[in-house]
């Protein structure tokens, strides 16, 4: 995650470079370090350095790092001729390199040569099954092709090896949700909460999935996770507060002890009041819509 200080430094350097103030190499190094997506600018300023023999030779061994950075950025921008030239330079310098082989496969993918790219990725994984970049590229390629079931299979196999990759768990959960496979998505969020219990986003997403699954037990659990989201955000998550209201209404409709739990009613009432206060402050023009919604949930007079 990029910090505010790093983001500020990046913006300052980017403005400086764009306005001809120099510092292109420092900017490119920072983009690479922070792993941010600035493909068009990487291609623009990276090529200026690579096409200037004096600047290029001054980089020393980092020259080849820049060739790789520009190649990937050029593929992202569909500047395939630029990418091809960069990969060619790397092939000549490092013949037989697996790292360059990965770039060759990515170039095939960028061209839309799916079958050839799949063969290239599979060959690389035979040599090194633990290559995370290749595994992720293969998953991304299948998603781009619309082969979602294959992408799910690859993601599950990937997570068998790299269980601590939280981004992969989240991606898998989102794919399952898009396919309305909510039980499988719930499992992914359970893994994320176990690994990073203080991140409110995971609690909120898990609560949404449980509420969508429905049934008294799931909705009661969803209410708890909406509550934990509110706790983790210091009471500032409007969506979680509204989730409490929805859960309270659903539980009242499903439970045989409808409206008998005074504590539950009080919590729901407090959540409704918090929502109304929030809307008055941030979106007063939408307050009538909220009031109408709360009335339909029997949480407002």
Notes on the protein architecture:
It comes from Kalanchoe fedtschenkoi. Part of the endoplasmic reticulum membrane protein complex (EMC) that enables the energy-independent insertion into endoplasmic reticulum membranes of newly synthesized membrane proteins. The chain is an all-alpha fold. 78% of the residues lie in helices and 0% in strands. Among the domains are: 1-95; 196-300. It contains 17 helices and no strands. The two termini are 44 Å apart. The model has no long low-confidence stretch (mean pLDDT 91).
What sort of overall outline do the alpha carbons produce when their principal axes are compared?
elongated
Quantity of strands, as a count? 0
Q: Per DSSP, what share of the residues sits in E-state strands of 2 or more residues?
A: under 5%
* Assembly of the depicted chains: single chain
Percent of residues in helices = over 70%
Q: Report the uncertain regions.
A: none
Taking all Cα atoms into account, the compactness measure Rg is: 26 Å
What characteristics describe this protein?
301 residues, mainly alpha, 0% strand, elongated, membrane, TPR repeat, ER membrane protein complex subunit 2, TPR-like_helical_dom_sf
List the helices and strands and how they pair.
Elements: H1 4-18, H2 24-34, H3 39-50, H4 53-58, H5 62-76, H6 80-93, H7 98-111, H8 114-127, H9 132-145, H10 148-161, H11 166-178, H12 182-195, H13 200-213, H14 216-232, H15 238-254, H16 262-282, H17 287-296
Helix pairs in contact: 1-2, 2-3, 3-5, 5-6, 5-7, 6-7, 7-8, 8-9, 9-10, 10-11, 11-12, 12-13, 13-14, 13-15, 14-15, 15-16, 16-17
